[in-house]
Design a protein that fits this description.
The chain is an all-alpha fold and 150 residues long. The protein has 5 helices and 2 strands; from the N terminus they run H-H-E-H-E-H-H. It has one domain: Large-conductance mechanosensitive channel, MscL, domain 1 (Non-ribosomal Peptide Synthetase Peptidyl Carrier Protein, Chain A), CATH 1.10.1200.120. The chain is 70% helix and 3% strand. It is elongated, with a radius of gyration of 33 Å. The N and C termini lie far apart (89 Å). The mean pLDDT is 84.
């Protein structure tokens, strides 16, 4: 079993997957920052507030210490039931951005693979032998050109 596991790990696909997970994690943080720090403040400003994550509905009792608070994170940490539609919208925008970038990446890769396959097929395609009547006509023409003129 250990040998099989080593063979599995040594395959290129597993290493590629590990690299993809690491890069995906870093990419996710970049997209999260883009969403939370750039896009959502603009959307929040358009809708009348700067902090889009502060859009929520309180569904239960709020502790006396946090009465009147609009801090979503503090209320959530205190265990207050909240309907955080602002946080949900932020995550939805985050998902759309990631999905679009992945779509563009897969689309580009598919086009590159198709182009590579077409070029490979064209290179592998042997030139067709010319028909025998055309070859015979070429020989006759060449023979006539080689004769001396009188």
């Amino acid at each position: 079993m250990l040998k099989e596991f080593r063979a599995f790990i040594a395959r290129g696909n597993v290493l590629d997957l590990a690299v993809a997970v690491i890069i995906g994690g870093a990419f996710s943080r970049i997209v999260t920052s883009l969403t939370e720090d750039v896009l959502m403040p603009i959307i929040g400003r358009i809708l009348g507030g700067l902090d889009f994550s502060s859009y929520f509905v309180v569904l239960g009792a709020v502790p006396a210490a946090l009465q009147g608070s609009t801090d979503y994170a503090a209320l959530k940490k205190a265990g207050v039931p909240l309907l955080g539609y602002g946080a949900f919208a932020t995550q939805a925008v985050n998902f759309v951005i990631v999905a679009f970038i992945i779509f563009m990446l897969v689309r580009t890769i598919n086009r590159a693979v198709a182009l590579f396959e077409r070029e490979k097929a064209q290179a592998a395609e042997e030139p067709k032998a010319e028909p025998t009547d055309v070859a015979l006509l070429r020989e006759i023409r060449d023979e006539l050109k080689a004769r001396p003129r009188v």
